[in-house]
Amino acid sequence: MFDLSSVVVGLEIGTSKICAVVADVAVDGTFRVLGLGQAESKGVRKGEIVNPADLPELLRHAVKEAEEMADVEVRSVWLGVTGGHIQETHNKGFHPIASDDREITEDDVDDVLRIAKTLNLPAHNHPIHLIRQHFGIDGQVTENPVRMYGNRLEADVLVLHGNFNRLQGAIRAVKSLNIEVEDVAFNGLASQLAVLTAEQKELGTLLLDMGAGTTEYVVTEDGIVHHAGVLAVGGDHVSQDLVTGLRIPLGLAEQLKVKHGSASLDDPRLGDTLQLPSGNGLAPRSINREHFHRIMHARLEETLQIIEQKLADAVVLSRLHGGVVLTGGCSQTAGLLQLAESVFQLPVQLGQIRCVAGMNESVNQPEFATPVGLAKFGSFRVQRQLASRARFNVRRTLTQLFGR
Amino acid sequence: MNSPSILPTVKVIGFGNAGCAMVGRVFQQGLLSGAEFLVLNTDQAALASCPVPSQLCIGLPVTRGLGTGGDVALGRSAAQRDAAVIRAAADARLIFVVVGLGGGSGTGGAPVFARLARESGALVLAIATTPFEFEGGLRRANAETGLQELRAAADAVIVLPNHHLARLLDERTPVTEAFRVVGERAAEAVTGLWRMLAQPGILPVDFAGLERLVRGRHAESAFASVEISGEARVHDAVVKLASHPCLDEGRALARADALILNLAGGPELSLAEIDRASREIGRLCRDNVEILVGTSVDEALAGRLRITVIPAWRADTEVPALPLPGSASSERRDCREPVSARTPQRSELPDADHLQTLETDLTQSTTLSLPIRASSSRRGHKSNHQPELNLFPASRGRFDNTPATIHNNENLDEPTFRRRNLVLN
Does pTM surpass 0.80? Predict the structure, then answer.
């Protein structure tokens, strides 16, 4: 009689792969992954579509695979967006409390949030997320101001915004397949939903999602996202550096990186040489392992350092007791944990995808954090709709019973 | 050990922070008896910490004694404002101008000083260090333009590129140590030249000879000195010189069109050794090279042989490899090469032209007020414009058709190891 679960689909058009995750969410919030579909990505660089020619085919393939595995039909998706154009802005709103007794009402809270959300974004920029930080009453920070007393209510919001046209690229590509886009979400926020536990969010944690094209960072403290952003440097840069430094083709560079790559400079094998497979008419060659590691180390260290510098102005990093959590395909590089520990001076761990019932084994790979998180992002809203629908259904049943 | 009668009046001038430090070092060594020392700077605090007693703080009205903060134009105008004082200070036959290029005071001021000193009849030898690569693009570009101006203004410039030095040093050398070595090398160049000129020797290099070699040539030089003892000391020393990083692994010798060679040894130094050294070094050079050989005997060097070479080549035949030749140098090369290829006399002409324009530039900027100076610098900018030779492949690999990722004025799409100058050999 009541359909108390619903399907949500998260779709990520990443630089290295396109990935769709089908999950179902129950009215009590149970989140279960039903299916997963992937396709190798083409024409995507640094998280943004540069050549949409091959995309529809690949998107269709990924979605079809997920549909078949989950045995559902995908009509709409929650789409992930990223790219170097995405920026964060902090904004503050003020609202005087006009009522005689100075008691703060729900309306006052709505007003102050509305004021905080009106901000001067650069032309062509479109807000993606508005994240409430905290309220203040006459300068005192508070979580929930309703029914408290004061003269002036303040609200802080974090606005993530990006270039409208560049955001549209991904949306158009999906819509061309006759699939609806429910909403877009920033990839970093999605990964954080999939990977961080409630405790980590409370303690204060920096999440780094190191993908092929971009590296997203999200700082969560007291359960709230305080900072988020993206650096358009990722695993592709490592490969490209190897291409230039070792003079090898890109495909080979990627193979080497995955098979032998390491960010560590105190590896006992540093003196060795690596034999390159000969083929395609190339003469057999060997490369110096030390150069190989040095090139990777320089790039990865620099990437982490840039993020550390970006955050150091805004966050007291040593206060993040939850440490650093790494996820994304690039996070599997050997020696990266130690490198990140030395750059951030914080404990570092690899993220596990949390709170997923069903298909745990196959989904629990760092590169699926974003699509799982996107489905999760969607599930919150779907769950609210389900809950209100359930309430409505119960009421209708009761009126039917008693109205008879 | 030397009598002042051999030498005309000699002044050693330190310009800017680095120059002051280097001259301070030479002064403290106390080897140059008979020379006068003078340091000039825009920064009073830096002057106060310099051991040289005669000091001049220039450009007080423009810098308030606080230095230029790396602004070359400010350094230049500081020196120009005090032109009268500088002219009065430049009353010697031979002036060594010691300067660390890359900053504001030295880079802007030293060329002005060299020009004024040369106008008053002195032979000006500039000893300039260029910045390390890690000091950044701006300082390197400053140094490059400063070097161009210095070449046009001084009789001869001995360039001591610090990045050559970086190859000599161990990776773990602390930075203070690196700068100390830089200072020592510049000091060595000054004292080495001095020793050649002042020490009584079997075959002294005299001032007239040096003057003939460098005067009017706008020569450019390198400097290297090795000290070796043992049986086959001449051979060892020559082998060491041939691979000396300060001489570009011997390439500087190969392209030199004049060479000053000084051998110093203990009382046992024999004529055969001198003969062999000059012949073996001559073999490393071109056929028609002009070699000025000097030898001296020093009791302190008993058992050891010190060979100092200063290969000089005309600045316009080849520009030495600074890490990144700025637009100014490429322009210079472009306009010179066809001329110098024909006749050496003709090659002198553009130099004079260059000097002329430089001088008019300078006089304009001294006499006119700020907005006009801006216009003259704009003119300079226009003349510097030159289409760049694209040395990197046009394709950016995987990042074709993508907006570049720029962070702190660095293009992050460029490989990190290249931007950090990691050596992969």
Answer: no
